[in-house]
Write a sequence for this structure.
């Protein structure tokens, strides 16, 4: 026997499948030491919504205080911990280079956004970690700045990040910016 919630879910799934307009995210699971998280679209939207509660908060080196300040990697760490209970290092180089944190997402050299999913950590080459400038290699750099891929809105690919030359938490399109040009590596935390 179907209950009301099941009918709504079936109807929504049928509408998505029938129209082909929206691609439903596959259900993956990620585990931290104490939490299992399903990477449904709804959960990933909660991740972005949580981060957006800090829009405009000032960039402050080595800080992780909601409403007061973050640096880039403390921001990404805080968003995951406060949304899903997933804890990982608050150092961008560790987030980028540690094999214990997430798994690599291949950056396509012709379309850097092609393989990204909402919630992926994005790493950028910069003066703090220039690497060799190549995509997806262990020497490509990308430990200097980190942000969170926030998806596509009106055909634009968005990033949620702190700093990145903005001195605060921002949610903005990446096309035609330093973010698009300097993106060299990505990691998927929730699978």
């Amino acid at each position: 026997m179907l209950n009301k919630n099941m009918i709504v879910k079936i109807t929504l799934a049928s509408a998505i499948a029938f129209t082909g307009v929206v691609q439903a995210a596959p259900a993956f699971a990620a585990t931290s030491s104490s939490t299992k998280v399903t990477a449904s679209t709804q959960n990933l939207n909660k991740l972005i919504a949580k981060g957006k509660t800090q829009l405009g908060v000032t960039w402050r080196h080595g800080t992780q205080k909601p409403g007061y300040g973050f640096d880039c990697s403390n921001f990404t760490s805080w968003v995951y911990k406060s949304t899903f209970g997933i804890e990982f290092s608050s150092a961008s180089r560790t987030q980028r280079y540690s094999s214990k944190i997430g798994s690599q997402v291949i950056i396509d050299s012709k379309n850097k956004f092609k393989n990204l999913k909402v919630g992926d950590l994005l790493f950028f080459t910069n003066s703090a970690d220039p690497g060799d400038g190549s995509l997806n290699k262990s020497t490509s750099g990308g430990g200097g700045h980190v942000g969170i891929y926030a998806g596509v809105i009106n055909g634009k690919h968005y990033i949620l990040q702190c700093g990145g030359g903005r001195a605060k938490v921002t949610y903005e399109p990446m096309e035609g910016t330093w973010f698009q040009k300097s993106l060299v590596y990505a990691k998927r935390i929730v699978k």
Observations:
- The beta strands are 29-31, 36-38, 64-65, 69-70, 103-105, 121-124, 145-153, 156-162, 169-173, 183-188.
- Residues 25-188 form a domain with the endopeptidase fold (from Nostoc punctiforme) fold (CATH 3.90.1720.10).
- The chain has a mean pLDDT of 84.
